[in-house]
Every structure is written in C-alpha cells, then in structure tokens.
Amino acid sequence: SWTDQARAVLPDAPVQIVEFADFSCPHCREFHEQTHEQLLEEFIEPGLVSLEYHYVAFLGPGSVRAAQAAECANDQGAFWEMHDLLFLRQASGAFTEENLKDFAREVQGVKKDFNVGEFDSCLSSEAKKSIVEAQMKDADRQGVNSTPTFFVNGEKISGNQSIEAMRTTINRYLGR
C-alpha cells in the first residue's frame, strides 16, 4: 500500500508533488484535513501523482521534535501514520517529547509491529535532527519561505491549496 513507501509515494508517477510543511503550521493542517485525502483517492492511489513530504520545522522546538518523530516513525515504515496523527494532535505545546512518545503508542495501535522502544530511543537521541536540518536547508535553497509550499513537477505553489486548485494544476500536467 502507499503507506509503506516512506515519505515518498509512487516516485515514478507522471506528476510529482513535493510538499514542504511544518507539523505545527495551521495552514498545513488545513491542507491535510481538507485536501490531502481527496488528493490521495483521486490521484495518488490510481498512480497518477506521487507525493513527497519535506520538513520545514521553523515554528519552534516543537516543530523540530515533531519532524524528528515522523522521521523516527519512518524508520519503521510508519511515516504516514505519524504524519496523520501529528496533524490531528496539532495544538500549542503539543509536541513535547513525552507527548510524541504517547503518539507512538497510538501508532502501535494501528500498526501492530511498530516498536515503541525503538521509536523512543530514536526520538530521545535526536538521531534524526540532521535529516530535518538538511531538509530545512534544502527548503531555503528552493526559496520556500512559507508553509505549506508545493512543487508540482517543479512549479512552485505557495499556500494552502484546495482540491479544486490542485486538480486544475495536476490535470494540466496530465494533459487533460
């Protein structure tokens, strides 16, 4: 299934979307709640669009911790489960180390083979901080200065996008 593909889904699809987002960003959450599921059903599951998520953890230490948590979950093939949970639980002060470890237990409820001990060690060690920092530098290089920002086949689109707007852009690249 698409959830087993880490942060990148369907890398050989004809339309490539790279999303730059922050788990603490309200507009990113709105995109997740209002557009992501339809994008998944209409374009990703049929194999027309790939989606790759990149961290722009600029809204404080909680953003950085949340991105590290997603990357630790990614080690066990649970990036998208953690991604969804982080947006669901988004609130001021929500991304403490203790809360993120609790979220891992929720992920384990959905993904039985998820090892919370391994996750906890990964998060506490900050082993993934360099990945998060590297993605933030990449975002800077690409001129990402707000979240969410999307690159659709290289075309930069800033701000939360409705499914209608995404559909129009995607269909243009699909030639329909």
Short recap of the structure:
By secondary structure, the chain is of the alpha+beta class. It contains seven helices and five strands.
Layout of secondary structure:
Blueprint: E1 8-9, E2 15-21, H1 26-44, E3 49-55, H2 61-74, H3 79-88, H4 97-110, H5 116-125, H6 129-141, E4 149-152, E5 155-158, H7 163-174
Parallel strand pairs: 2-3
Antiparallel strand pairs: 1-3, 2-4, 4-5
DSSP strand content: 5-15%
Give a quick account of the main beta sheet: strands, pairing sense, barrel closure: 5 strands, mixed
Helix percent band: 40-55%
The separation of the N and C termini measures 27 Å
Q: Would you identify the regions where 5 or more consecutive residues have pLDDT less than 50?
A: 1-5
How large, in whole angstroms, is the Cα Rg?
Answer: 16 Å
Q: Per the principal axes of the C-alpha atoms, what is the gross shape?
A: globular
Q: Which strand order do you get reading across the main beta sheet?
A: 1-3-2-4-5
Give the ordered list of helices and strands. Answer: EEHEHHHHHEEH
Care to count the β-strands? 5
Overall structural class, as computed from helix and strand content, comes to alpha+beta
Mean pLDDT: 91
Please report the number of helical segments: 7
What can you tell me about this protein's structure?
52% of the residues lie in helices and 14% in strands. The chain has 176 residues and is an alpha+beta fold. The chain has a five-stranded mixed β-sheet with strand order 1-3-2-4-5. Strand 4 (149-152) and strand 5 (155-158) form a beta hairpin. Helix 3 (79-88) crosses helix 4. The radius of gyration is 16 Å and the shape is globular. The two termini are 27 Å apart. Mean pLDDT is 91; it is low at 1-5.
